[in-house]
Design goal:
The protein has 99 residues and is mainly α. Helix content is 72%, strand content 0%.
């Protein structure tokens, strides 16, 4: 969902420059863990939780500095990244190997 939000945000909804911007490429790092997440690999969930914190940080910064639709998109990015972080930490805890 965050991949689509980033693409729509930077290409159509509220791009930095009219007609879209190169910031749409910020969704590419989200594609790296996609295969491992879909296959339920615990290690992928662990490092993807750290990766998503970059998007959380960007969302917080842009929610406090942008105005109009970009601000609401930044709030949505922050919420989605926080949900993903909590869910991935919960998944990593639930699937940890027993001692």
């Amino acid at each position: 969902m965050l991949i689509f939000l980033c693409l729509a945000w930077e290409l159509r909804l509220a791009p930095v420059h009219p007609g879209g911007s190169w910031l749409a490429l910020k969704c590419l790092p989200l594609l790296a863990p996609l295969f491992g997440l879909l296959n339920g690999r615990r290690y992928t969930y662990q490092w993807a939780a750290m990766l998503i914190l970059l998007y959380f940080t960007e969302g917080i910064v842009r929610a406090t500095t942008d105005h109009g639709p970009a601000q609401w998109l930044a709030i949505a990015e922050t919420a989605l990244s926080l949900i993903f972080f909590c869910a991935s930490v919960a998944y990593a805890r639930l699937t940890r190997p027993s001692a």
